[in-house]
């Protein structure tokens, strides 16, 4: 499947941020990515980890979760299953369309808009808070492949390589890392 991703491009559907450690984030007209830090004004911005459970384990570990992306196709799937979920509501900073985010390998670079560049670090590991948002949603964002392996569908995480403004309708260009590709793991 990765070969089909070589010429993949997409676009930004929505951008969001929250200064508080809230589950959902406010959708905005534009966000600013800061190199090595994340989304300006977002609670998860910083060189060291900001996710509460990870801070409790080791506050000095690097922040591999500076930017959270979700493909809007997931919202379509969830809507078909009876859920009402829109951009920013699952805590993502960038909602995309047209890119198979979950199939990209670790280290993939995404060039967004005119200047921003991010590098994919891994998968978001959805937690029980999702069920507090809408009952049954956690099971809807988890699946299993034909071998019984867990599939996490709640988005991917990235670090910011080059800062810049990101807004809806910005193009996204995919650059795969050198082979051999490493499958995304939770971060």
Q: CATH-wise, what's the superfamily?
A: PK beta-barrel domain-like
- Given the structure, what is the number of helices? 4
Number of separate structural domains: 1
CATH class: Mainly Beta
What separation lies between the terminal Cα atoms?
23 Å
What is the spatial order of strands in the main beta sheet?
A: 1-6-5-11-8-7-13
What portion of the residues fall into strands of 2 or more residues? Answer: 25-35%
Over the alpha carbons, how many angstroms does the gyration radius reach? 15 Å
Category by helix and strand content: alpha+beta
GO molecular function: catalytic activity; molybdenum ion binding; pyridoxal phosphate binding
Protein name: MOSC domain-containing protein
Pfam families: MOSC
Domain MOSC: 26-175
What's the short version?
This protein is of the alpha+beta class.
Can you give a write-up of this model?
The protein is an alpha+beta fold and 187 residues long. It has one domain (2-175): M1 Pyruvate Kinase, Domain 3 (Beta Barrel). Helix content is 13%, strand content 32%. It has helices spanning 52-57, 72-80, 129-133, 137-140; strands at 9-17, 26-28, 31-34, 38-39, 67-71, 94-97, 109-112, 116-123, 142-144, 150-152, 156-162, 164-166, 171-175. The strands form three sheets. A seven-stranded mixed barrel has the order 1-6-5-11-8-7-13. Strands 4-3-12 form a three-stranded antiparallel sheet, with no helix packed on it. The radius of gyration is 15 Å and the shape is globular. The model has no long low-confidence stretch (mean pLDDT 93). This is MOSC domain-containing protein. InterPro entries: MoCF_Sase_C, MOSC_domain, Pyrv_Knase-like_insert_dom_sf. Residues 26-175 form the MOSC domain. Pfam families: MOSC.
């Amino acid at each position: 499947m990765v070969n089909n991703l070589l010429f993949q491009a997409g676009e930004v559907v929505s951008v969001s941020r929250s200064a508080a450690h809230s589950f959902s984030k406010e959708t905005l007209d534009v966000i600013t990515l800061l190199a090595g830090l994340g989304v300006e004004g977002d609670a998860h911005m910083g060189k060291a980890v900001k996710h509460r459970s990870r801070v409790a384990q080791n506050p000095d570990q690097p922040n591999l979760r500076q930017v959270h992306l979700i493909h809007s196709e997931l919202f379509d799937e969830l809507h078909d299953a009876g859920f009402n979920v829109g951009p920013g509501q699952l805590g993502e900073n960038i909602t995309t369309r047209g890119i198979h985010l979950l199939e990209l390998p670790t280290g993939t670079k995404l060039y967004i808009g005119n200047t921003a560049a991010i590098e994919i670090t891994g998968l978001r590991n959805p937690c029980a808070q999702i069920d507090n948002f809408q009952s049954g949603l956690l099971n809807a964002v988890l699946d299993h492949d034909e071998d019984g392996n867990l599939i996490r569908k709640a988005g991917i995480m990235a670090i910011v390589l080059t800062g810049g403004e990101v807004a809806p309708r910005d193009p996204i260009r995919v650059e795969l890392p050198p082979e051999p590709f490493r499958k995304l793991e939770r971060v």
